[in-house]
Amino acid sequence: MFYDHQSIEKKWQKFWEENQTYKTENKTDKPKFYVLDMFPYPSGAGLHVGHPLGYIASDIYARYKRHQGFNVLHPVGYDSFGLPAEQYAIQTGTHPAITTEQNITRYEEQLRKIGFSFDWSREIRTSDASYYKWTQWIFIQLFNSWYNKSTDKAEPIETLIQHFETRGTLNLSAVQNDALNFTAEEWKSASELDRQDILLNYRLAYRAETTVNWCPGLGTVLANDEVKDGKSERGGFPVFQKKMMQWSMRITAYSERLLQGLNTLDWPQPLKDSQEYWIGKSQGAQVTFELLNSEENISVFTTRPDTIFGATFMVLAPENPLVEKITTEEQKSEVDRYIEETSKKTERDRMADVKNVSGAFTGAYALNPFNDEKMPVYISDYVLMGYGTGAVMAVPAHDERDHRFAKKFGLNIVKVVETEEDVQEKSFDSKDSVCVNSDFLDGLNYTDAKAKIIDEIENRGIGHGTTNYKQRDAIFSRQRYWGEPVPVYYKEGMPYALPVSSLPLELPEVEKYLPTEDGDPPLGNAKNFAWDELNEKIVATELIDNVTVFPLELSTMPGWAGSSWYFLRYMDPTNEEVFADKNLSDYWGQVDLYIGGSEHATGHLLYSRFWNMFLKDRGFISQEEPFQKLINQGMILGMSAFVYRVDGTNQFVSKNLAQNYETQKIHVDVSLLKGTSDELDVEKFKNWRSEFADAEFILEDGKYITEREVEKMSKSKYNVVNPDDICEEYGADCLRLYEMFLGPLEQSKPWNTQGLSGVYGFLKKFYNLYYNGDSFDVSEEEPTKEEYKILHTLIKKVVSDIDNFSFNTSVSSFMIAVNEFQKLKTNKRKILEALAIVVSPYAPHISEELWEKLGHTISIEFEKFPVFEEKYLVEDEIEYPVSFNGKMRFKMALPADLSVGDIEENVMKDLRVLDQLAGNTPKKVIIVPKKIVNIVC
To answer: What is the pTM of this model?
Structure first.
């Protein structure tokens, strides 16, 4: 029977959509299972065959769990705010909402073609006002919260105000920017402006001057993970360090919980390691060093206070506010020049550049509190303002970077940890020795010395033992248009949250998407974007009088805002009263399976955990962590094609002749190749780009053969394969099976269109098991033992594979089973019905079609998954190889349950044995039950 994949797939996609087959109910007695893919951004290019890999895996698992009787939540939506749409708007004037809508339409069309079992009724988009209303609401909750270290959780700002009103800062244990000290009376007598300024010191969403990654080319601030090698990941524009007033999220309040929470999660270890490194917990001491001839002092955090006697100089971050205060007039120009150079590097670049040594002397000197030695104070880009205090005590004998710095600038190197190595030539960083040249620490090991010096530091009142985290608060402002407006207005320069009743604060229309002439973000171009406090509504910008009408925040939220809580909105996507009903969020709980790329380790995955923990603290949800199990899928790599252009000409030489010429290797679109071969269609190539219109070719055997290489699939490499084309020619079921068949989910693997034909051949065989010629032919006969054995071998393997996410080996097992059934001419209903269900998570369209042909009127989707029964794999007979003096002569089938004595009795009666013995009596008969028989003559 002809397998018409096109009509079958269109038929069932239409059926699923019309019948809302995958719509999930919230009220059910079934156990729940929540399967989620990382939020897709709808780019203009649409999907290539690499994108669906994780979606196919999650879809197989979602379908499998439905077969197991779970109420499965498997939703889809779009992270639809983003820079590409805004950049396109700047270039063309097209509103980002229009571009985004077109892109989503294209994405959805492609996703539906692949047959995903998404609950489309729950679709969300971060750029819809009905969605970002709740993103803004969460921001306001963060703004109106503080972190109480005593209770180790976020609390409403009102409880902090109550503390101030009764005790001032006495016994306050809070996460804060600066350590403040005031009485209850001073709080009560403070002005409204001063009170708000004080509260901003504690709010979880706060505004402060921050060093940021400023990208003039994009007109916005970028997160560290959006910057690569000093340039923006999007567009490749230069990025500079700059101090700006920015909104930040106090994620540092959650550093320890984020660290400890990793122990509860079933995540890949490399991903956990990335977050652990990013959070960067370290224990040590904070020590204050006095500056000579100055009222200022330098506070440092060090993990090695035991080496303080070897501290011979100090280094400040170039952006440390102290630099300006302590730099002498003689050194000012050199210091200013160095600060300017450093501003062109991101923090990530500075951390990565461990070999280059640079710096500038400030002219100032500090005093070592333990040996009274003068310590020159430098600035250098290897010290970061965001880590510790933005200053280090340099111990060059025992720190590699400090050593390189000391050698470059001719500074003292003093050994304070015992070693045979010459510390003048190389630093000795070990903790496995004892202290020397360290007065009262001499002879002590690392642990004892560290404890003793911290006690002494605290006794002298110059510092204390402390725990530090490398993680910094997350910048939350972007100077761009296409993002969530921040629901804040300003009175006398102080931020106030909009009332919740006024949400959403909608993105206003603007004529231009660039910053204003005054340098304000694009929202500064809006004509209707001011807050009438009295009437609680948005009014014309020209009405701002700072009496009743006030300016609104002009920055928008970062790309990660909407994706930090979307998994919660899917639980209750149309609720207009709350972001998610507590009963529903309690029912759905954590995401049970989350699949996506490892590139989100220190971005989305960290921010989502932070927001989730905050919402739990405030009682809005019950679960501490959002994603219980996470799998990072690998990439599907593209098979790029190259042509060789002879230098200085427009001649192109075929691959195997290129070695005879000086050539340039050029990417060529894989669509210009003939079929699935490596041969270039030269006419198509000439028409591809005008520069190649008059191209000449040096051929081999009348053909132009291209070079092929495996690379990341990308538009820029012209190696993108469109899944629409694959679905058209081979079908979505074939695409789904092939992507799983390529290899383990977590690994990267190359795409090869030629490999589809083998999978397509399997689908045709599978389809035709149910047919006799062109007639659907299924027997009601009882299957044979062999048929049951093949079926249950398959069930056992597939259940194990799905449970272990080894989808590639399931596809191999399908092929083996179908081949065996084909040889047996299997057409028994009991076999073929079970087979259709087992295959259906992987190839749902063909399985639905066959299920209907088998006489069923309800979708296969909710049929119980066949249960493996061990009895069908138990052998009734064992085929024993019978050997004489170790040489196998023949095989003999015997019942599997025979005892050793019974086996010997049967063997010795066999005519073939009697012939071999020729009347002789065997010396010994060796029997290994269910294995061998060996007769020793």
So the answer is: 0.87
